[in-house]
Each structure stands twice: as structure tokens, then as C-alpha cells.
Amino acid sequence: MKGLILKAVGGQNRTCLKAPVAAVRWLGGFSAMGMAILLAAGAWARESDGTLGLIRSPHNGRPALVGKTPEFDVVLRDKADLRLEREGSPVPLAVQWREMRGVWRGRCRLPEGVSEGGYTLVAESGGKTDRNVRAVFVYASFPESYRFAQLTDIHIGAHREWGSGVDVFRKAIETINASNAAFAVLTGDLTHNATPEQYAAFIEILDMITLPTFLCPGNHDRGAGDYDRMFGANVYGFDFGPDAYLSYDTKDYIVADEWGDQNGELELLRRSMRPARWSIGLTHRYDVSMGMRAQLTLFVDCPLDYLIFGHWHRDNQEGEKTVPWGATPFTVTPAAIEGYWRLFEVSANGVKPEPPRRFLAIP
User: Fold this and answer.
1) Cis peptide before 334 (omega within 30 of 0)
2) Do 84 and 157 have their domain in common?
3) Do both 109 and 213 map to the same domain?
4) In whole angstroms, what is the distance from residue 182 CA to residue 331 CA?
5) Are 64 and 137 a contacting pair, CB within 8 Å?
6) Alpha helices, DSSP H only, in the chain?
7) Do 10 and 83 reside in the same domain of the chain?
8) Which of 104, 138, 172 is the last residue in one of the domains?
9) pLDDT tens, 282-327?
């Protein structure tokens, strides 16, 4: 039986789960008290300006999911002593290190008997301690059928008649936490102007989510490279049980714009997803004129089974259901800043979007 291992693919981290599964939620074993303690610990794995610190990954926007094989990979600026923490109790990690391209990559192994739930990753090096809450989630098994939540176009820093982006995001998180989702994807326009203050507000509220959260940037998150400094790699993959997810960045909107180094990374990641039951793409927006080489990789040569995005601030209608070439269906979720979110059901029968839901009553 094989469990989760993070693999370096194209210079990026890929979370790979290959485990026998049973219908249980990850939240079993992770108490509300544990979350409160983790949040009270309060320190991000970040510098004073909110950028990533010693720990580059995993983090609260791209966590490691650990299954039957109790291993996961880390990327750090410097070699460090590592441990997990939960409810004040440390969990020692045995780490095999290698230096590669100016960073330290470690394969971490958990001791036997580690309980299910979410953990803080702690790194100590040269008198510096770096902590990243919600960075590692441990599972006994994974469900064959499950739901995940999508939230998009949050726009921290924007203001509407019914409240600010901050207030709306808090309400959205309350709703997601009360749902039966196994994890949440936040597909871009996390901020409105990509300022350090907006990112700081976003990260603080993000850690109120009790589920694993996977992020990708939107056009409003561009700034002066701040998204990269806050969350690292824009292109990565992760598996949940038998299904593979690919999160990628659609960059600035330039007709026929190619996506630079991302093209090669997408090719490698897409190849690695082929054994999965379903392959699901996550991005902020899609347009037929964007990144021709990447679109051939994702929708023609080896088509994704499903694509999920936002940006439109509305649901997609009839005639807007599939990528024009190939047969990849897609779903567009209306904006969170306008009170919407969506659940997707994933099973042996496929990926099924539920109708968009409101977490906020707006006149």
C-alpha cells in the first residue's frame, strides 16, 4: 500500500497520494480545541512583511496531505530542525536532506501512531524559529467519494454596499467550515490591489479555515511579484485519493500570450497525472486566446477531465460549458465578494458541480 509523497516535478512540488481509501472525513481526530490552539500560536511561516520565511513549502496555501505512507517533502531556504505541533504537543520528524538550486529539500517521515488532523510545521535554524499553521494534514484513509469547496474572486481590499472584502471573506469561511467539504480551493483575485496590507489581511483570515486550502493567483493578485513572495510556486499539483489536481496561473491578459517557464512545468505535471482517476484543473480564468502551447498540453494532447475557474463574476451559461477544442468541460463560479461559493462532488461517476450557493444575503 502506497501513501502520499511530495515529488519535485519541473522544479515544483507535487503532492501525490496513492492510498487505499474509505469514506471518512479528514476532520476526524482534529478537534475545534486543537484548531483554536494552532491559531492562537499565531505565527505565520513568514517574515514581518508577510512574505514566506525559512519554510518555502508546505504552507497554508499549499499544504502537504499525508496518507498511509507517512512521508512528505519540504522546501526550506536553509537546512533546519523540523517538527510538527498540535495542541502544544511536538511530533518529531526524521528528515533526509539534499541541497538543490539554492534551497534545501527534505523528505520528512512521521513516527508511528500520529493522529489524523491538521498540524503546524515548525523549523528551527540559526536561532530562528519559523512556524506554519495548517501546513500538514494527516489522514488514515481517503474517501472514494467526497466534496470540495470553491471560493473565487474574494477581493480583499474592495468594498461593496453589503460589506468589505474582509467581512465577506470571514462570512464565507464560516460557511465553508460548517460544510461537508474535504478541502477548499481559492481560485484567484484573493486581493483587490495586491498590496502587502491586503495580503496580510487575507492570510490572517485564511487561517480561520479548518480545511486544507489550495490557492492560485488571479489578475488582481499580480502587484510587484507579491503573490510569488507570499505563496511561492504558481504551478503545482496535488492528489486527493485517486484524483489529481493541477493548479496553474493564467498570468496577465495578453492575447496569445505564452506563459513562459510554466509551459514546461505544465507538460511535466500533466504527464504525471495520467494514472489518476480524474484530472482536474484549477485556475483563475480561461479564454481561448490565452497561452496556445499550454492549452494544447491541457486540452488537446492529454485533455484534463475538468476545469474550474472564476473571474467572470457570474455562473457559466449554456454554450459556455466546454473548452472549444477537445472535450474538457468547465465550471465558472460567481464571485465571493458578491456572496457566492460552490461545492463539487467527486466520485467514480465523475466531477459534478452543484449549483452556486449564497453565504451572504444581498438585496
Assistant:
1) no
2) no
3) no
4) 19
5) yes
6) 32-41, 165-177, 196-206, 226-231, 262-272, 292-296
7) yes
8) 138
9) 999 988 877 777 888 888 888 999 999 999 899 888 888 899 887 8
